[in-house]
Amino acid sequence: MTDNPFFEAWTTPFGLPPFDRIRPEHFPLAFDRGMAEQSAEIAAITGTTATPSFADTIEALERSGRLLDRVSRVFFNLDASNTNDALEAIARDYAPRLAQHRMRIALDEGLFARIADLYARRGTLALAEDQMRLLERHHLRLVRSGALLGSEQKARMAALVERLAVLHTLFGQNVLHDERDWQLVLDEVDLDGLPDFARIAAAQAAEERGIGGRWVVTLARSAAEPFLTFSTRRDLRRTLWEAWTARGRHEGARDNAPLIREIVALRAEQARLLGYDNFAAYRLDDSMAKTADAVERLLLQVWEPAKDKARDERAKLEALARAEGLNEAIEPWDWRYYAEKVRQAEYDLDEAEVKPYFVLDNMVEAAFDVARRLFGVSFTKRTDLPVYHPDVRAWEVRDSAGDHLGIFLHDNFARAGKQSGAWSSRYRDQETLDGAVAPIVVNNNNFAKGAPTLLSFDDAETLFHEFGHGLHGLLSRVRYRSQSGTAVRQDFVEFPSQIFEHWMSAPETLRNYARHYQTGEPIPEALLRRLLAARTFNQGFATVEYTGSALLDLELHREVRPEGLDLARFEAELLDRIGMPKEIGLRHRPAHFQHLFAGGGYAAGYYAYLWAEVLDADGFAAFTEAGDLFDPALAARLKDIYSAGDTRDPMELYRAFRGRDPTIAALLEQRGLTACQ
Ligand SMILES: [Zn+2]
Asked: For 492-510, how does the pLDDT look when each residue is reduced to its tens digit (9 = 90+)?
């Protein structure tokens, strides 16, 4: 194929991918050539007997795989945001081949010998701080991939990695199919209790599925949660709840249970090969937390107070439910519904009253404005840039001197073919090794599209969260690609995103940007006060559903011999042992726990959100203590964290910003988990 866009230099503005010309059939050839090119580059590094230097080994490694990186970024971003059968088939085909390719490099003996030689002499190489860390991390990465193993063990390791890549892909595709295919079809009589925004979204979903005139609720979180919150129909809430919590778990070809069994068994074997007792020990050895015990300590520090708070919350829900004539216990499909009623009664707060003040476009402007005030960056809308879907918006980002920093793509709406949830990713990473390369960052959300699109308070927080990740990529100022932006330890990567959320709920942000979609009036002060007062409401529930999932993740990956695991029994016994309140469901059950099984990134790592919350609560407290949410000195030190990428140890970075180690006090206060008695 001569017209494959991946084999040409891109002349598009800012070197964006020429989305209009990229077809599914271009990917396989580009993947093949990209892997071949990188293999040749590695062979060139190892093909000399000269004493290795940092430049001819580490920097040459950093330069390798440019084409493969380019095609992989485009492919995996499109497969997540805008997939179809052709891309899904390529993903199934290439996930194992790419894993195999990466593993071949990680286990290349010539390459490791050169890096190990440099590592042994690292004190004599006169390296800069970022170079020293880069060398140490490349060395550690290869050791953790199995570079020190014998040849038979190496082959087994490679086979495990390849098989895991297949299983991860299948797992994610199964969940997507359940979320896409299952539908609760409603007639007008079934809509009782649903506010306008939920009705409109359900009408649109029906339209998309060719049953216009009716209403459809899918299993996407953005559709399921409002229905569980507002529908007065207990029978339908139960139907939806049962389908929602069964995603990924059903007999037949698309059942995720056997995949999970195999995944955890293979991971445990990987860990054993590398000399660890279990996968959690292996994974956590290279994290800020360091050990499973440290993670468990943190989770248990919030678990008991969270259960106490949830018990108080349940008592209020039950009292209200009894007053409304429900003479049965509160069930999981009731919690959100009665919680919303209690919220309305106690705080006089109605989500349907709040939403009209949270217009998507205004909240995007708010996020840009906070970034400008904290970090001096500006965003200019560009309608002339290539995008992969008409709903995607493109912005050029500049620093305070007016210099180009990067491109920000915003993909905000739910649609078929898009993974659920919200995430930030990149089409290109910042680096300066061979001249300045500007980042191209994308934020994905799954808001129900409206005219205009109205957000819940939580949605707005999610928007800011992903934008925090986006800034982590955009503000990156590093030399080497593999240290760029969000390439930090996995339990540190949520810090820049989570601390940014705090500025969304700052009263001055809301006064400026939370404006009624029809009148343009700012949110009334009384409503704003009630909204902020309600922030610790239902935090017992939220902490329990999250921490339960985090404990499940940790325990599952602490299993020494998980072969033949009875997943249902494991889940039931664990929930029993930790005293999971039966009227609260896990935020993610194993069969749809994408963090753990649609990829390896968050395996034994779901705790990272809470770990980072210790940091973000403690870090934001620095601004409130200073009495200025935009304190210039603090903002400058915070910007250093966003800019540093992985060039420094995260705890050192945090201490340089805060002037001391983090403490958990601010987190407990933020979730209302202090002084329960
Ligand atoms: Zn995040």
From this structure: 999 999 999 999 999 999 9
Contacts of 206 (CB under 8 A, 6+ apart): 185, 212, 213, 214, 215, 216
Tell me, in angstroms, the distance from the centre of ligand 1 to residue 58's CA.
30
Q: What backbone torsions phi and psi does residue 505 show, to the nearest 5 degrees?
A: -90, 5
Residue 555 backbone phi and psi in degrees, to 5: -65, -40
Element (H, E) at 407: strand 404-413
Longest pairwise C-alpha distance within the chain: 83
Give, as residue ranges, everything with CB less than 5 Å from ion ligand 1: 494, 497
Task: Give dist(CA 178, CA 83) in Å, integer.
Answer: 15
Contact (Cβ atoms closer than 8 angstroms) between residue 263 and residue 587 = no
Amino acid 57 reads: T
Helices (H), 491-582: 494-504, 507-513, 525-533, 539-556, 567-578
Going from the Cα of 471 to the center of ligand 1, the distance in angstroms, rounded, reads 12
Please tell me what DSSP assigns to residue 641.
H
Identify the CA nearest to 546 among candidates 497, 491, 613: 613
Place of tokens 């979903």: 205
Which residues are designated catalytic? Answer: 466
CB 463 within 8 A of CB 424: no
DSSP class of residue 477? Answer: -
Residue 390 preceded by cis peptide, ω within 30: no
pTM above 0.85, yes or no: yes
Task: Look at residues 606, 648, 336, 643 and name the one whose alpha carbon lies nearest to residue 490.
Answer: 606
* Residue 238 amino acid letter: R
> What is the residue-wise DSSP string for 301-317?
HHHHHHHHHHHHHHHHH
Residue corresponding to tokens 């506010």? 195
pLDDT tens, position by position, 173-229: 999 889 888 999 999 999 999 998 899 989 999 998 999 899 999 998 888 999 999
For the beta carbon of residue 539, count every other beta carbon within 10 angstroms.
17
- Cα-to-centroid distance, 587 and ligand 1 (Å): 16
Q: How many CA atoms lie within 13 A of 470 on its CB side?
A: 32
Distance of alpha carbon 616 from the chain centroid: 16
Å from CA of 465 to ligand 1 middle: 6
pLDDT of 112 > 80? The answer is yes
Rounded CA separation 650/612 (Å): 11
Give the number of other Cβ atoms within 10 Å of residue 26's Cβ.
19
Asked if omega into 195 is within 30° of 0 (cis), the reply is: no
- Is the distance from CB of 227 to CB of 194 less than 8 angstroms? yes
